[in-house]
Amino acid sequence: MTVGSFFSGCGGLDLGLMNSGFNVKWANDFNHYACKVYEHNIGEIVCEDITKIKSDYFPNVDVITGGFPCQPFSNAGNRNGVHDERGNLFFETLRFIKKIKPKVVIFENVRGLLSIKNKTGNLLINDISSILSNLDKKLGYNVKYQLMLSSDYNVPQQRFRVFIIGIRKDIKKEFYFPQPSIFQSLENLLVNSIITNIADLKNLEYWDLSPQQRKMIEYIPEGGSWKNVPYEILPDRFKRIRDNIKLYHSPNFYRRFSRKEINGTITASAQPENCGIIHPIENRRYNVREIARIQSFPDSFIFPETTITNKYKVIGNAVPPLLAESIGNSILSLNIS
After folding, report:
1. Is the pLDDT of residue 207 over 50?
2. Among 104, 277, 115, 83, which Cα is nearest to 191's?
3. C-alpha distance from residue 313 to each of 91, 226, 263, 295 (Å)
4. Which among 248, 204, 254 is positioned nearest to 229, based on CA atoms?
5. Residue 154 has pLDDT above 80, yes or no
6. 105, burial (CB in 10 Å: exposed 0-12, middle 13-18, buried 19+)
7. Cβ distance 214 to 207 under 8 Å?
8. pTM over 0.70
């Protein structure tokens, strides 16, 4: 089955679909470095703002995907949803869906999408499902959505993502989300597997911590967090949180996962305050290859030269390829090509 990919980023979703047997026919993103990574590892991509592309620009495909920007729906953001300019980019994909009429649509986003409401009081996820179900008189999709935990699908990361799958109604096939994998061993999911056998690989560079960050993590043991840092060492803003920790919902900043744990979510910002980015036994961030492994990118997937923050950003924004591959396998099992 052929795929057209919007908001492709550096290619995590597309790589997973390709590994399950799909043929990515075209892709689009507007981030120039993400496009550079995509071209280096996967193939051609149109590096352009989707709002500036005409709906007849791309040829027909069987599947359209869209990992539309997650910031408007994130629990960490302002949660303005479709009222945020970036949230309206979801509707841009509909222009192409109406034109191409793909057999399948795949959307992916953060779990905050499931709880946010529009100004009408309706859950946004239900509005999205309704829109896809009734695009026009002749075109509609049977829609299912599910919150998926990446580590259930062989990704060494506790990362939740929402997938929305639509099957064109005339196809009359029912999609079922993949069941969590039955692991023969959890060893490949643990942090220890991420940091071993890595010395001879590419992309071992890492983003230096600030002096304040370095000072704090010296007190954090393997498996610990900022709660292990002596009070007198904490910056003033952390002292204010520690003084009233219940008011701030007991945040677990500066989490240093142990080698015997599955790592937490890697974010695009790669800040110790909001993701498990600290190496378990070295006082530094994970390097580029390590976070790529946490996202389930193969070691052969290369991140060309740019600023170090760009590398962390595109990896953190990506869909874990192994999670995407499990979705792809479930779609192909319907035999609708």
Report:
1. yes
2. 277
3. 24, 23, 18, 12
4. 254
5. yes
6. buried
7. no
8. yes
Q: Is the pLDDT of residue 76 over 50?
A: no
Q: 200: how many CB neighbours lie within 10 A of its CB?
A: 7
**CA distances, 260 to each of 156, 174, 257 (Å):** 12, 39, 8
Determine what percent of the chain is predicted with pLDDT higher than 70: 94
Q: Which residue has the tokens 């999709």?
A: 141
Angle between helices 89-100 and 124-133 (to 10 degrees): 20
35 is catalytic: no
Length of the chain: 337
User: Can you say how many angstroms the Cα of residue 25 is from the centroid of all Cα atoms in its chain?
Assistant: 21
| Residue 279 token pair | 């190496």
- Across the chain, mean pLDDT equals 92
Question: How many Å apart are CA 115 and CA 124, to the nearest integer?
Answer: 8
Domains of the chain: 2-182+318-332 (3.40.50.150), 187-314 (3.90.120)
Buried b (16+ CB within 10 A) or exposed e, 252-284: ebbbbbeeebbbbbbbbebbbebbbbbbbeeee
The residue from 10, 47, 70, 275 that is catalytic is 70
User: Do 93 and 5 meet the contact criterion of CB atoms below 8 Å apart?
Assistant: no
pLDDT confidence of 79, banded at 50, 70, 90? very low
Positive/negative CA dihedral, 266, 206, 202, 314: positive
